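Continuing the series of single-chain predictions for the mutant panel. This is the parent chain; the variants come on the following pages.
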Amino acid sequence: MLCLCAALLHDVGHGPFSHSFEKVFGTDHERFTQDIVTGDTKIHRLLEKVDEDFPAKVADVIGKKNV
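Parent structure:
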């Protein structure tokens, strides 16, 4: 379930023309996604219903950290 949630949410931080925008401004949509998943958001609250640590675990997978 962890990998499925990370796969479904990994592009939540995308904005319009995201990849071009990232190159010009040196940003990263995956970092934005991690902030959404771990911040005070509806997505975070929903993931917390699985487990208190689940949002952080999903963010770690999105950030390609060892989990």
